[in-house]
Write a structure and sequence with these properties.
single chain; alpha/beta; 6 helices; about 35% helix
């Protein structure tokens, strides 16, 4: 089976995806920081690779364990004490390593509001998450320019409840909404086996909690 290398598998969407893949006996390589609790990943039979996504050498070693037919998923996010966005800098390092390795598919998990969705952000969303979304957009742009076969997944607001099975992918730049992390993992699993998803960017929302903004936000409300 095609192995999957996950960056950000220690929690959230990454961990949910690792559990989903291992239930199907798909090999999972998980890069986790040394201080991260890796027990949940060890319990499901994932191969743990200690390292830091901000260290190119660590990321290269993770890719060295993946053959050229492997799939890469990044859900990494956060900010370092010195102000660096892992969303941007970490993902750039991952993308560069993916390009050097020549992987089959790179799935980058960012957020609603990135890329062509930016004009539809509300002033409140910009105030709360603007810097992070901007950093994620820079990572998206880097991936698009890399030549690596990619899919972008942009979840809306995230919850921790069990999967509803109502998650959906949309290319409408005006869509907003919420979704459970477990449902995002299901959608990523779906994209992995869909050749038509290559080169595309999707918002990920719960179809029962989605809304469409009729016009772009003006920044005044």
């Amino acid at each position: 089976m095609t192995p999957v290398l996950i960056f950000g598998a220690g929690r959230g969407v990454g961990l949910a995806l690792a559990r989903l893949l291992r239930r199907d006996d798909i090999p999972v390589l998980a890069m986790v920081r040394p201080r991260t609790d890796a027990l949940p990943l060890l319990e499901i039979g994932a191969d743990i690779m200690p390292g830091d996504v901000l260290e190119p050498g660590d990321v290269k070693r993770a890719f060295d364990a993946l053959d050229d037919q492997g799939i890469v998923v990044s859900t990494v996010s956060g900010r370092t004490e010195d102000g660096r966005f892992v969303d941007d800098d970490g993902n750039r390092i991952i993308v560069d390593a993916a390009a050097a390795r020549g992987v089959r598919h790179c799935i980058l998990v960012t957020a609603i509001g990135c890329g062509e969705m930016m004009p539809f952000r509300s002033a409140r969303a910009i105030a709360a998450f603007g810097d992070v979304v901007d950093a994620k957009t820079r990572a998206e742009t880097h991936l698009k320019a890399s030549g690596v076969p990619f899919t972008l997944i942009r979840p809306g607001g995230l919850g921790n409840e069990p999967a509803t099975g109502r998650g959906m992918l949309s290319e409408n730049p005006a869509i907003h909404g919420f979704i459970q992390r477990a449902d995002v993992a299901l959608l990523i699993r779906q994209v992995m086996s869909d050749p038509g998803a290559l080169g595309r960017a999707y918002a990920a929302v719960d179809r029962d909690r989605a809304r469409i903004d009729p016009i772009p936000a003006t920044g005044t409300g």
